[in-house]
Structures are given as structure tokens and as C-alpha cells.
TrEMBL record, chain A:
GO BP term, example: protein maturation
GO CC entries: cytosol; nucleus
Organism lineage: Eukaryota, Viridiplantae, Streptophyta, Embryophyta, Tracheophyta
Name of the protein in question: Protein BOLA2
InterPro entries tied to this protein: BOL2 (IPR045115), BolA (IPR002634), BolA-like_sf (IPR036065)
Organism: Senna tora
UniProtKB/TrEMBL annotation, chain B:
InterPro entries: Glutaredoxin, GRX_PICOT-like, Monothiol_GRX-rel, Thioredoxin-like_sf
Family: Belongs to the glutaredoxin family. CGFS subfamily.
Name used for this protein in its record: Monothiol glutaredoxin-S15, mitochondrial
Any one GO CC term of the record: mitochondrial matrix
GO molecular-function term, one example from the UniProt record: metal ion binding
PROSITE patterns: GLUTAREDOXIN_2
Domain Glutaredoxin: 64-128
Top-level taxon of the source organism: Eukaryota
Length: 95, 149
């Protein structure tokens, strides 16, 4: 059966109140594998593992159906802005 | 190169006799046959506790311990394969168990780490995460070690 991208997105939105979220279905459509980028204030002061645990916990129900969850990014809004600025800079430099 | 730097950083953690990769293929293959032991568990709860002890001993005895799908030379999942490649890239010795061959171990590991997916990696007895978290962790260790030089 599997889980839809929308289900994953709505659970994460409801529980972690993200300011940015991107979910990519990496399963080729069967809904068993996702890559996630998420930005939330709730990650403030939390270590990487704790952040990833929060994501896993938010998806507790979905995880029963999901085979693989690749958390590409779990950052705070502050970190996100810094990373965006940096990537803009390097884009400008390479242009 | 990150390799020697990281090795230096980790070398203090590894008993010298422990440098070779240890694969518990024989243990996994036969299953852990507690039923043949004289002090065999009386109940399912007791059996679960015994398996949990095995996991706790694994992560105590191995500076780096991976619970994976398949064995290091023949991983049975892309993420397990990635984790093994990362460990080999940094030349980290590790112990490994194949959870596909032992569901009891799989459940015990899950209850120790409270983590839903495999592979799962423990460093110095501490749960690190899966392949993604392992990559980050080893990168951090290498960077820190470089700074301290």
C-alpha cells in the first residue's frame, strides 16, 4: 500500500510546524521511501539525532508503511537562512 | 586525506586486538540457540531480555557496531550498503550483524535504540542513527580531528 507524499507532509506540518518543507518520493511511486528537507523552530537547541527522532516520531504511523526515510536536512530557520545565503553566494561566484 | 586523521582520532577507542572486522556470520546463521543452554529462558519475556543482553554486549565490545540488512560484503539494501561503504572509506573497523537472519535481534536493537529503520549504527555504545547520520558523524569527527592537529 504505502504512504503518500501528502500524508507525510501533513503529519510533519501538524506536528513540527515547519517554515519550509520539501518531500521527495524516492520510491518511484510505491510510497515506501522518502527524502525530506524540513526547517522548524522546534529544532532549536536539539542535536542532529534528536531532530531526526522528532521527525521519526511525527511520522510514527506512516513509518509502519515506510521502508526508508532519508532526512536530508532538519535545520532551524536561522541555519536555513545561513545556508540559503551561502548557496546564493556560491551561485553568484560560479555565474 | 581524512583517513589517517580519523583513524588517529578513533585509535584511542579501539583495543589493538580489535582492529579486524568481525562478522558474526556463524552466530547469525545458526541463530542464537538459547534453547540448548542449561539455563534456558523460562518465558518469552526472559528470552527477549537475553537477546537484549546480546545486543548490549555487541555495542559494548565493538567500538563501532552496525546492525544491517545482509552482511558487509553482500549488503541487501542500498542504505546498509552505503553505511558499510562509509565505514570502509574512513577505514573504521566494525562489528556487524545481519538482522534479516535474526528477527529477535532486529526487535531487540529497535527497542534499545528506539529507531524505526535499518541499518543502525552504534559508536562507543552510543546510538548514532542510520547511514545518513553516520555520514554526518564521521565527517564531524574528521573535521574536529583536523582542527586539533
Amino acid at each position: 500500500m504505502g504512504v503518500t507524499k501528502e500524508q507525510v507532509e501533513s503529519s510533519l506540518k501538524a506536528k513540527l510546524n515547519p517554515s519550509h518543507i520539501e518531500i521527495i518520493d524516492t520510491s518511484g511511486g510505491c510510497g515506501a521511501s522518502f527524502a525530506i528537507e524540513i526547517v522548524s523552530e522546534q529544532f532549536e537547541g536539539k542535536r542532529l539525532l534528536e531532530r531526526h527522532r522528532m521527525v521519526n516520531a511525527a511520522l510514527e504511523e506512516e513509518m509502519k508503511e515506510i521502508h526508508a526515510l532519508s532526512i536530508k536536512k532538519a535545520v532551524t530557520p536561522e541555519q536555513w537562512n545561513q545556508q540559503q545565503q551561502q548557496s546564493n553566494k556560491s551561485d553568484a561566484a560560479s555565474a | 586525506m581524512a583517513k589517517p586523521v580519523l583513524l588517529k582520532a578513533l585509535s584511542g577507542l579501539l583495543p589493538p586486538t580489535h582492529y579486524n572486522r568481525i562478522i558474526f556470520a556463524s552466530v547469525c546463521h545458526n541463530g542464537i540457540e538459547y534453547s540448548t543452554l542449561p539455563n534456558r529462558p523460562e518465558s518469552h519475556e526472559e528470552f527477549e531480555a537475553t537477546v537484549k543482553n546480546v545486543v548490549e554486549k555487541d555495542i559494548k565490545d565493538n567500538s563501532v557496531m552496525i546492525y544491517m540488512k545482509g552482511v558487509p560484503d553482500i549488503p541487501r539494501c542500498g542504505f546498509s550498503s552505503l553505511a558499510v561503504r562509509v565505514l570502509k572509506l574512513y577505514d573504521v573497523p566494525f562489528g556487524a550483524r545481519n538482522i534479516l537472519e535474526n528477527p529477535e535481534i532486529k526487535n531487540a536493537v529497535k527497542s534499545v535504540s528506539n529507531w524505526p529503520t535499518f541499518p543502525q549504527i552504534f559508536i562507543k555504545g552510543e546510538f548514532i542513527g542510520g547511514s545518513g547520520e553516520l555520514k554526518e558523524k564521521l565527517k564531524d569527527v574528521a573535521v574536529t580531528a583536523k582542527k586539533e592537529e
